[in-house]
Design goal:
The complex is a heterodimer of chains A (about 475) and B (about 350). Chain A has four domains: about 15-50; about 80-160 and about 330-465, MetI-like (MetI-like fold); about 165-230; about 245-315. Chain A has 13 helices and ten strands. Chain A has helices spanning about 20-50, 80-115, 120-135, 140-150, 170-195, 200-225, 255-280, 285-310, 335-360, 365-370, 375-405, 420-430, 435-465; strands at about 160, 165, 225-230, 235-240, 240-245, 245-250, 315, 320, 325, 330. In chain A, the strands form four sheets. In chain A, strands 1-4-5-10 form a four-stranded antiparallel beta sheet. Chain B contains 14 helices and 13 strands. In chain B, helix 3 (about 60-75) packs across helix 9 and helix 3 packs across helix 13. Classes of the chains: A alpha+beta (about 475), B alpha/beta (about 350). The interface between A and B is large, with 52 and 58 residues.
């Protein structure tokens, strides 16, 4: 024993090892959380049993017995179950959420850009819109819109009637007139660009061209028989909602969505081809126009071809006046309109601020550089500023989308049958199974929110700046 | 930080365990006494049945039933806290203990009595569902309402009867359901619906809220049985007995002619039934955990059933509803209380 035996490095008690301590705390916290959940669950089950309150999920199969006005899938209170009522409510929630998100985004971007407009009036209007709307409680706004939608509209007996137009077969002279009108309009447009000595004259010429085209369409399209006025009303508006013709699909109608898919596939193929050509030759192709033509044009051509053989894939059932209400046709309910309106206008105010912040985050040098390259303000915004602003915009935009969906639960105040009103309202009340119903409802909203943010995260990753 | 979270979590667990234990160990009567107040689930505002005025004083037939219970327990009808509940929230509030008793024009049905975990104690108002429409529609019967839009309140038997009625008569309709009675009436008034449906008593009460009450009529059809009454939670028989017998005591008091004005004189009555009712003989009040003079307290402060009826919904009120089915059995009605003996 010549040397002192080597001792392990001093480390005191295991209790003071930071790694072990960290793990121990996590385990303890997890155990406490687990115990909390366990005791809450067993406590609830025991109490429900003691109070003889029904529990379990069997109620989902029981006949509902109540009716719902707005339903996207078949629902009849006499035979449909609570489970089906759940789906009706969920689809109504998703409908208002999806439409609301799209419209709020569009309106929000417009207002956000308008706030930065050099035009004094436009920017001030946008500013006041944002300031007023986002500082008023949403519930108040919903009630306001519901009354604003309901009050001024006439009762069903005095519906506002829009005599619609339908497609017919054009005659030869009419086509000639139309070609002449549009030819004149085109000539005016081109001529204005060439002859006009300054911007004002050119503008006047273009406006005149637009007026000629519009008048031509307005007077000639019905006149020549392409479009003919219908005998009865097509659209009716009253305080029960907006009534539209209801499409009834024939056997052959299945062709239309198939042609749509073909169109989409072709459009994608064209885009890939155009991109490869552009990188090879530098030549640009109007990808957008061709895509629209393919996607919309193919089904339209199919329809026209079928119509030639006297097979009408889609016919319409029109609303007719009944004793109390209009019957037949598709009905858009005032509750839906009010809720969508309220949510869109409210959320758009927040989105506008997010868009403004995003645009302002793009350095002024970018705009100036684009200007130096000869880009006009429109393309500068579209091609330079907004793509860079998007990476600032997307994350807060996601929360606004989530807010919109969650706020849609205020539907309950204006009688729109969404998930909360139908399921967490009527179904809960009738079955008395608060724990199960609320658990399902919460799970649904959680799922909707998680899916939305997952989708937005994927998009965010695509627009994020790639650091090299 | 982690330490704090862990200790908070443990604290919450301990608190949950503690409240769970106390809620199970104590009866409702003891809880009410300890609180010094009865929590009564009431309507958010239905004239004649349960409505607060501008000063926050509640009046109504259902409100009197709450006050009678408080009077029997505390000898003070003001020791009630009214919990205003919408139709769809009312059962959850009673189940979860937010209210001790629910007296909110609630229809007694089998599913509510069984699977909802409630016990109905009796019927304090026999009602039935009706329709109200605008006069200018020229409708004289509910059977003419084919294709109409109907406003109703969600989470009610009304909503279900409506579906049954239209289906049974092969009529089409569009239902527009709102969460509260107020929103329903407002939407009907704004013209969203052709008809408004609820219990007949409610129709008369809500008509008073409309902009032009005279432009609306109540259709003659009564399409359902709506026995309205008080309910309590399952699992506390003593409390169930108290609420039930307070109701019966008010009926018996009317039957025996005991009123707010003469209750003190009646204590000297020779009638053995009145003696038992007012606690001069027997121990009936004590047998349900109250005092001997429990009925004296009720009648002294609130009056008998007939007095309460006339004051709130009958001739002494704006509603002017006739006794009809709600008269005593001895006068051709359905109100009948078992004897106190």
């Amino acid at each position: 024993m010549s040397s002192v035996p080597e001792r392990p490095p001093a480390r005191g008690s295991v209790l003071y090892d930071p790694k072990i301590r960290a793990v121990a705390y996590q385990v303890l916290l997890l155990a406490a959380l687990g115990f909390l959940v366990y005791s809450a669950t067993t406590n609830a089950i025991e109490n429900l049993r003691a109070a003889k309150i029904a529990s379990g999920f069997d109620f989902l199969g029981v006949t509902a017995g109540f009716d719902i006005n707005q339903k996207l899938i078949y629902f009849d209170g006499a035979v449909s179950s609570y489970g089906r009522a759940f789906w009706v409510g969920l689809l109504n929630t998703l409908l208002v959420g999806a439409i609301g998100i799209v419209l709020a985004t569009i309106l929000g971007f417009i207002v956000g850009v308008a706030r930065l407009s050099p035009n004094w009036i436009i920017s001030k209007i946008a500013k006041w819109y944002v300031e007023v709307i986002r500082n008023l409680p949403l519930l108040l706004q919903l009630v306001f819109w519901y009354n604003a939608v309901l009050k001024p509209l006439p009762e069903p007996r005095n519906s506002v009637q829009l005599n619609g137009i339908r497609f017919g077969t054009p005659d030869f002279a009419g086509i000639l007139w139309m070609i002449m009108a549009f030819g004149l309009s085109y000539a005016l447009y081109v001529g204005a660009g060439r002859i006009g000595r300054n911007d004002t004259e050119r503008q006047i010429g273009k406006v005149a061209a637009a007026i000629v085209a519009a008048l031509g369409a307005w007077y000639l399209l019905p006149g020549i028989g392409i479009l003919r006025p219908t005998e009865g009303g097509l659209f009716f508006l009253n305080n029960r909602g907006l009534y539209m013709p209801e499409p009834i699909f024939d056997e052959m109608a299945r062709l239309l969505p198939r042609m749509l898919i073909v169109g989409v596939v072709l459009a994608f193929m064209f885009r890939r081809w155009a991109r490869r050509r552009q990188s090879a030759t530098g030549k640009q192709y109007p990808v957008g126009l061709v895509a629209i033509a393919l996607i919309l044009g193919l089904p339209a051509l199919t329809w026209a071809a079928l119509a030639l053989f006297d097979v009408n894939p889609v016919t319409f059932r029109y609303a007719t006046q009944g004793r109390f209400n209009l019957t037949g046709g598709m009905q858009i309910y005032p509750e839906f309109v009010a809720l969508t309106f309220g949510l869109v206008i409210y959320t758009a105010a927040f989105i506008a601020e997010i868009v403004r912040a995003g645009i302002m985050a793009v350095s002024r040098g970018q705009t100036e550089a684009a200007g130096a390259l000869g880009l006009r303000p429109g393309p500068t915004l579209r091609l330079v500023v907004i793509p860079q602003a998007m990476r600032v915009i997307i994350p807060p935009l996601t929360s606004q989308y989530l807010n919109l969906v969650k706020n849609s639960t205020l539907a309950v105040a204006i009688g729109y049958p969404d998930l909360v009103q139908i399921f967490a309202g009527t179904v809960l009340n009738q079955t008395g199974q608060a724990v199960e119903v609320l658990a399902i409802t919460m799970a649904v909203y959680l799922t909707i929110s998680l899916v939305t943010s997952a989708a937005m995260n994927i998009y965010n990753r695509r627009v994020a700046i790639v650091e090299r | 930080m982690k330490k704090t979270i862990a200790s908070i979590a443990l604290g919450v667990v301990a608190a949950v365990a503690a409240t769970g234990a106390s809620a199970q160990g104590q009866g409702t009567l003891a809880a009410v006494k300890a609180r010094g107040q009865l929590a009564c689930g009431a309507n958010t505002g239905l004239a004649g049945f349960g409505v607060p005025d501008a000063q926050g004083n509640w009046t109504g037939l259902d409100v009197d039933a709450c006050r009678a219970i408080a009077a029997a327990i505390f000898d003070d009808p003001t020791k009630v806290r009214f919990v205003p509940l919408s139709a769809k929230d009312r059962f959850t509030a009673l189940q979860s203990g937010e209210a001790d008793v629910l007296i909110r024009n609630t229809t007694w049905t089998m599913s509510r009595d069984t699977t909802l975990g409630l016990n109905f104690v009796g019927v304090n108002y026999y009602d039935g569902q009706g329709f109200m429409v605008r006069k200018k529609l020229g409708v004289s019967s509910a059977l003419e309402l084919n294709g109409a839009s109907v406003c109703t309140q969600q989470g009610t038997t009304t909503e279900l009867n409506l579906a049954d009625f239209f289906r049974a008569n092969k009529l089409k309709y569009e239902v527009v359901a709102f969460a509260s009675a107020d929103e329903t009436v407002k939407a009907y008034d704004a013209g969203r619906c052709d008809a408004f449906t609820t219990d007949a008593s409610g129709l008369y009460a809500e008509r008073l809220k409309l902009a032009n009450a005279d432009e609306h009529i109540v259709l003659p059809e009564i399409i359902s049985k709506e026995p309205l009454g008080a309910s309590v939670r399952h699992g506390d028989d003593q409390w169930f007995d108290i609420v039930k017998w307070v109701h019966f005591a008010m009926l018996n008091a009317e039957e025996l002619g005991v009123t707010k004005a003469n209750v003190n004189d009646m204590l000297k009555s020779d009638n053995p039934e009145i003696k038992r009712l007012l606690g001069v003989e027997g121990n009936f009040g004590e047998s349900i955990g109250l005092t001997k003079d429990w009925v004296v307290r009720i009648v002294k402060h609130v009056g008998n059933y007939g007095e309460s009826f006339e004051r709130n919904v009958g001739e002494g009120s704006r509603l002017k509803i006739k006794r009809g089915q709600n008269a005593l059995w001895s006068k051709g009605g359905l109100q009948y209380a078992p004897p106190i003996r």
